[in-house]
Amino acid sequence: MQIAKRMSSTSENLMDYSSKIVFTLLGNLFCSIAFNGFFVPNHLLSGGVGGISIMIHFLTDLPIGLIIFIINIPIFIIGSKIIDKKFTAYSFISMLTLSFLLELTRGIDQLIMMDDILLAAIFGGILNGLGMGLLFRNRTSQGGLDIIAAIFKKKYNINIGTGLMGFNTIIIALSSVLFGLKPAMYTLIALYTSYKIVDKVQEGLDTKKNVIIISDKSQELGEAIQKKLHRGVTFLKGEGGYTKNNKNVIYCIVTSTQVGKLKEIVEEVDPSAFMTINNIQEVKGRGFKSVGI
């Protein structure tokens, strides 16, 4: 029995490792194409540690690669203490992967031929956001401000895309003084697009819904939801404001694809039931897989 458990654990760890490697390559490939195919040819400014490095390079003439490495050292040290050593280690590997793929994809703009700066900002932002989202969803990143945003996500539950957008807005504002206002404005469009995509990939396409149902047939409804949707329900004690009658209030979480079936169940069991459905951002617990940071 113990041997079987160890083999199962080893197999799961190997699958997890393989998945991280695949998505690290894929995510950074998307980011590299966005950078070399859309951003650089159209002179869009960089955000994050790259943007800071460019500014320092402009002022000191130090190599950008060296500046990026130096800036990332304290960030990785802090990240390993606050977030997760495994996440930090994978992020370091991801940073090296990105550097390699950026070299590998140099010249790809000759194939894409995107000379419209607005389209470059939008589609480059989509590709970049998709790449970063895949990394975050698989608990890794590209280091730099990604790790700082992950810290804010853990400490203050601020969306990673929102956090990165806030940091980069400050960086772009400073960069615009050195490189001009117009490129900075288009860069903000690219960054906004990127981080909206990051949040969507983080949350997933099948979002979760918070459902509250008030019904005189709460027991039947609860049993039907558990049987047909395979979702747990919780009965909260409620009291009618007018009738003063005690009632069980049904509370449950379902996925967006289950909402239609849930409405059918409620209509079938108690058409007069009162129901509210709200979007929720994150769910952690039995029956729901926690993803990302």
Q: Judging from the principal axes of the Cα atoms, what is the shape?
A: elongated
Range of helix content: 55-70%
**Could you give the order of the helices and strands?**
HHHHHHHHHEHEEHE
Radius of gyration: 24 Å
Structural category is alpha+beta
The side-by-side strand order for the widest beta sheet comes to: 2-3-1-4
Domain module count: 2
Beta-strand portion reads 5-15%
Which residue ranges are poorly predicted, with pLDDT under 50 across at least 5 consecutive positions?
none
What's the gist of this structure?
Keywords: Cell membrane, Membrane, Transmembrane, Transmembrane helix. It is a multi-pass membrane protein. The chain has helices at residues 2-39, 48-60, 64-82, 85-104, 109-112, 117-137, 145-156, 160-179, 181-203, 218-228, 259-269, and strands at residues 208-214, 234-239, 246-255, 274-280.
3D structure, described in words:
66% of the residues lie in helices and 10% in strands. The chain has helices spanning 2-39, 48-60, 64-82, 85-104, 109-112, 117-137, 145-156, 160-179, 181-203, 218-228, 259-269, and strands at residues 208-214, 234-239, 246-255, 274-280. The model has no long low-confidence stretch (mean pLDDT 79). By secondary structure, the protein is α+β, with helices and mostly antiparallel strands. Helix 3 packs parallel to helix 7 and helix 8 runs antiparallel to helix 9 (181-203). The protein has a four-stranded antiparallel beta sheet with strand order 2-3-1-4, with helices on one face. The protein is built from eleven helices and four strands, in the order H-H-H-H-H-H-H-H-H-E-H-E-E-H-E. The chain has two domains: 2-203, no CATH class; 208-280, Alpha-Beta Plaits (2-Layer Sandwich), CATH 3.30.70.120. The chain crosses the membrane at residues 21-40, 52-75, 87-105, 117-136, 156-181.
